[in-house]
Amino acid sequence: MFSFLQTGTWARPTDKMAVYTEIAPGARWGIRVTLLGSSAKVEAIEGANCSWYKPPKEIATEILPPSFWERLRGISFEDKLKAAVEDKRAYAAKRNDQTS
Fold first, then answer.
1. Number of separate helices (H) and strands (E) present in the chain
2. Which listed residue, of 2, 13, 45, 100, carries a Cα 20 to 30 Å from 19's Cα?
3. Where are the alpha helices (DSSP H) in the chain?
């Protein structure tokens, strides 16, 4: 699907949703990417079964399709998703370093 989302596991809870979960072996924190139609949600998670209610911006980000102006600048949905995934991976790595 996306070349930068290959080290974790994919799941299809429904026909319209795909969920990617990535937690390094021995790590407590990881990321979850939920693809819903034309949007996505990228979260830093504490364990595979973690869920957040109204998480702060450093924990979760909603990715929407690029606006007209973003498309004019050459920004694609994949670019926005990749930036959010890198940000949440960095946050998860920071939290893993703090807990160890």
1. 2, 5
2. 100
3. 68-72, 77-99
